[in-house]
Hints:
This protein has 282 residues and is of the alpha+beta class. It has eleven helices and ten strands. It has helices spanning 100-104, 118-122, 124-136, 140-154, 164-175, 182-189, 193-204, 208-222, 230-237, 242-253, 257-264; strands spanning 3-9, 19-28, 33-37, 43-48, 53-57, 66-68, 70-73, 80-84, 87-95, 115-117. Strand 5 (53-57) and strand 6 (66-68) form a beta hairpin. Helix 3 (124-136) runs antiparallel to helix 4 (140-154), helix 5 crosses helix 7 and helix 8 (208-222) packs antiparallel against helix 9. It is globular, with a radius of gyration of 18 Å. The chain starts with a strand and ends in an 18-residue tail after the last helix.
Amino acid sequence: MVVDESAWARPSAALRPYVAHYAGWRQVGVPSVTHRGLPSPYLTLVLTLDDPLVVRAHPDRRQTPGRYDALVGGLHLTPALIAHGGRQSGVQVAVHPLGCRALFGLPAGELAGLDLELADVLGALSAEEVRERLRAAPHWPGRFAALDAALLALARRAAAEVHPDVIHAFGRLLATGGNLPVRELAGEVGWSPRHLTDRFRVETGLGLKEAARVVRFDRARRRLTPRTRLADLAADAGYYDQAHLNREFRAMAGCSPSRWLADEFTFVQDRPGRRDEDGSHG
């Protein structure tokens, strides 16, 4: 029997400063593949419901491959390679980098380029409690409600530690699709480009130019479908030309746009359709 189901939801209003959305999936009997975990403006939290997540290669290739019951991954510029053996289920949470302090008690900059067991961040008991709440729920709405409750319990209301100008800068990058010059952005908050970049990197793990690249790439790949003309997509997303778009895909996805479409367009966690919420991401 083949099972291939997915669900999507936004978190409760109280969590939206910290979390962009949830994506749930359950697959049984589907073909085995290697999935690319691509750069995104959000941290990745994956909570498995049965078999562990198998990471064959991390964005930081110095990390050894591993198996994870619950994974939290920082912002990165190159893809992770994830083995999908034909059976997998879980929930992926898009965590806002500036909500990392509130949920996990540390700035996202400390997780940059890393994939860690959630237990290493929260402690084993807290991480397993979150997974148990999910597994006890009978359906996707119940799982998302359980996740709301668990994440609200984690929230330490530490978001005030993030400087308002860093919050402004991140919001502007999302709203403009990564197409705002750093000097102009720094001028909006009255800081030098270097100082703003340094403060931004501490909180997110990326510099402003790197974050702008990720936002632009993420928006482009979520708009990519088999019917998309790449030249039009490049122009709409703010790339110089189609060649520029191709170079960024090879750098951040490890392949061309057409190869990514052929390999992953039907993968449940990357199906386009909910684009541009919160300014850019879906």
